[in-house]
Design goal:
The chain is 23% helix and 23% strand. By secondary structure, it is of the alpha+beta class. The longest helix has 14 residues, at 36-49. The two termini are 32 Å apart. The relative contact order is 0.13.
Length: 437
């Protein structure tokens, strides 16, 4: 029997804790699912009581405050099974990437994961997923081999290339509105390790190194994936002394193979290096390439996709995040795409943004008093300033799904219309609302 918690129950709030603490969740009911059967029961309850249904796993997807409906907490569905011979991982719907990385590594295998192994596997894959190996291995969702989900009718279905292929197509990049995914199988890649990390440049060399990185990204090779982030570290004691109170540029690098040192050499020559943290990494250390935060806290960000960059873009970016900037951002990140991300899987998928060359993400100062007006206004100013480099198509993992314009831009028109048709076919009564409402 599933447990149904209401706001007056002691465990209600703890079951709704998200990674972004700025947004509180206030559903009518939360169900801490212990099994797939609990998910089936929860969906039946919601259907009978006229409640909408959303899923919560690791809490990284809570970018909006929600009121009403029923939330299913999937965090206990966190099993990982590795079939090393078939190079397949079967993963529970509430699992974090870290568990998959750790389970696969002893077999010399690795998932095509995101930059943070602290995020949930399923939510990330449903949006496509662009991680530190994107240029060599494509979207992470390209490696999905099947989904198991509970639909609005309460039926447990498998979606793969042979069974429910249209649903499978939509789940690989369509993000939401299909059902509650209780497990996923992915193909793993053989790897002994990764050559990766960050080459860090001090503030006086940010402009020189950033411009050199943009030139570096114009090379046709797709053997490595890089990104650049300017971070304005606060002068807090919690920040390590080499970073505390400094504005730094980090150029991240990732390569699976035997040419890592050769391919990273030009980055080390961009400008005088402050810290060189690029080295051979064990498969279990892949999260150190980006070193994304792992502790919950208030957060605000805006992101999207870009086309080809040039030195004029560097000038614009530096105005918002370089020396002398007073914009209320603590970080501005650009990630390189292209290579394998350009090619869709043979059977096709709904992942948006394949034609784009880069991603961008601005992270605001973690002060909730700025979230309502100051940061949105500053973010809008940045987006307007980089308008001529913006890709007309973005990716739903980088978009505000509550904003009609951003939601619409997450896919090409044909894909957008096809996704709407798939959602209607599996959820005709909008039990799993997704997108602007």
């Amino acid at each position: 029997m599933a447990t149904f918690l209401e706001p007056t129950d002691a465990a209600y709030e703890s079951e709704l804790a998200g990674f972004n603490t700025a947004f509180e969740q206030h559903p009518d009911v939360v169900v801490p699912a212990e099994s797939e059967a609990d998910v089936v029961e929860a969906i039946a309850y919601a259907r009978d009581h006229g409640l909408t249904v959303t899923a919560l796993a690791t809490g990284h997807g809570t970018h909006l405050s929600a009121t009403g409906g029923l939330v299913i907490n999937l965090s206990r569905l966190d099993s990982v099974t590795i079939d090393a011979d078939a190079r397949i991982a079967t993963i529970g719907g509430g699992t974090r990437w870290e568990a998959v990385v750790d389970a696969a590594a002893p077999h010399g295998l690795a998932p095509v994961t995101g930059s943070s192994t602290n995020v949930g596997v399923v939510g990330y894959l449903l949006g496509g997923g662009l991680g530190p190996l994107a240029r060599t291995h494509g979207f992470s969702s390209d490696w999905v081999r099947s989904f198991t989900l509970v639909t609005a009718s309460g039926e447990v279905v498998t979606a793969d290339a042979d069974s429910n292929p249209e649903l499978f197509w939509g789940l690989r990049g369509g993000k939401g509105g299909f059902g509650i995914v209780t497990s996923v199988t992915i193909e793993l890649v053989p790897a002994s390790g990764v050559y990766g990390g960050a080459v860090i440049f001090a503030e006086e060399h940010i402009e020189q190194a950033l411009r050199a990185w943009i030139d570096y990204t114009q090379a046709p090779s797709d053997e490595a994936t890089t990104s650049a982030i300017i971070i304005n570290f606060p002068p807090f004691e919690q920040v390590p002394p080499p970073f505390r109170g400094r504005r730094l540029l980090m150029v991240r690098f990732a390569h699976v193979g035997d040419r890592g040192e050769e391919l990273a050499a030009p980055i080390r020559a961009f400008a005088p290096v402050y810290i060189d943290a690029v080295r051979p990494l064990a498969l279990t250390e892949v999260a150190q390439i980006h070193s994304d935060p792992t502790d919950p806290g208030p957060g605000w960000g805006v992101g999207g996709l870009l086309n080809d960059l040039d030195q004029d873009f560097a000038t614009t970016l530096l105005q918002f995040s370089g020396t002398g900037s007073t914009a209320p951002f603590i970080a501005a990140e650009i990630r390189q795409l292209g290579g394998a991300t350009l090619e869709d899987v043979p059977e096709g998928s709904a992942a948006g943004g394949r034609a784009s060359g880069f991603t961008f993400h601005l992270i605001g100062a973690p002060d909730p008093s700025l979230f309502e007006t100051v940061l949105p206004a500053a973010g809008a100013g940045f987006v307007q300033a980089i308008g001529r480099w913006m890709s007309p198509e973005t990716n739903i993992n980088f978009a505000d799904s509550s904003d009609p314009v951003a939601f619409r831009a997450a896919w090409p028109q044909e894909t957008f219309d096809r996704l709407a048709s798939v959602r209607t076919s599996v959820d005709p009564d909008d039990l799993f609302p997704f997108g602007p409402h």
